[in-house]
Design goal:
The protein is α+β, with helices and mostly antiparallel strands. It is built from 2 helices and 5 strands. The longest helix has 13 residues.
Amino acid sequence: MPITVRSYQDTPNPNALKCLLSAKVGDRPRSYFSPADAQSDPLAAQLFAIPGITNLLIHPDWITLGKSPDAAWKAIKTEFERVLRALP
């Protein structure tokens, strides 16, 4: 069954968005501040391929996306949801 976003939550940072998930994505929290940091994490690597993503905090039940100030949330959400649906 594909993973979906149950809801999006704003954070105090307008360039960060918490995404509550329908299923777990791993068993431990992890954070990445660059694509190079995420090379060994397949999910994080796919998320960094989304234009505008600058950092990630991945918890088993949620993911916080960080973006560059000029990136649009609408485009990021569309690609983020596509990545989640394609997870095994």
